[in-house]
């Protein structure tokens, strides 16, 4: 079977609370980045969907939390290869405020295995997806 090339535009949320960053752990179903890495909540924009609609939908599916406010802060481009697909990914990064609540993955069999607030001081590039590393640079590492 020939290699495929695909493009995807995703919306990611950067949420902090008490020197912690909200992150999701990628499952085996992750289409672009390696499973096991910690990643920003968010995901691919469906045809006809507005980026902020994607952000609200994906944040709820992956974290169980609702977005109160969001502001676009940056966009980045990535090239990745996974499962026989060469990806060109464009990520739109939003700084977000969330409604208080308990974090939990609400989507079954999706690309998110786990969600948690992680201390900023404990995060190392070796456990983060490229998008999460860029998200940290947008808020400044401690």
Question: What would you say this structure looks like, in words?
Answer:
There is one protein chain. With 142 residues, the protein is of the alpha+beta class. It contains 2 helices and 8 strands, in the order βββββαβββα. The strands form 2 sheets. It has a 4-stranded mixed β-sheet. The longest helix is centred in the middle third of the chain and has 13 residues, at 51-63. It is globular and about 45 Å long. 32% of the residues are buried.
Order of helices and strands: EEEEEHEEEH
Query: So how many helices?
Result: 2
Structural class: alpha+beta
Largest sheet: 4 strands, mixed
Compact overview of the structure:
This protein is of the alpha+beta class. The protein has 2 helices and 8 strands. A hairpin with a 2-residue loop joins β6 and β7.
Topology:
Blueprint: E1 4-14, E2 16-17, E3 20-26, E4 38-39, E5 42-44, H1 51-63, E6 67-82, E7 85-98, E8 112-119, H2 130-139
Parallel strand pairs: 1-7
Antiparallel strand pairs: 1-5, 2-3, 3-4, 3-8, 6-7
């Amino acid at each position: 079977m020939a290699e495929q090339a695909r493009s995807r535009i995703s919306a990611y949320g950067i949420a902090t609370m008490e020197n912690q960053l909200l992150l999701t752990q990628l499952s085996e179903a992750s289409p672009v980045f390696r499973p096991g890495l910690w990643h920003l909540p968010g995901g691919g924009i469906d045809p006809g969907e507005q980026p902020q609609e994607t952000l609200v939908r994906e944040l709820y599916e992956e974290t169980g939390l609702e977005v109160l406010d969001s502001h676009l802060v940056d966009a980045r481009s990535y090239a990745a290869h996974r499962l026989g697909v060469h990806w060109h990914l464009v990520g739109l990064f939003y700084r977000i405020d969330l409604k208080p609540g308990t974090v939990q993955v609400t989507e079954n069999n999706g690309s998110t295995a786990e969600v948690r607030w992680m201390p900023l001081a404990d995060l190392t590039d070796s456990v983060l997806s490229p998008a999460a590393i860029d998200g940290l640079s947008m808020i400044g590492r401690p």
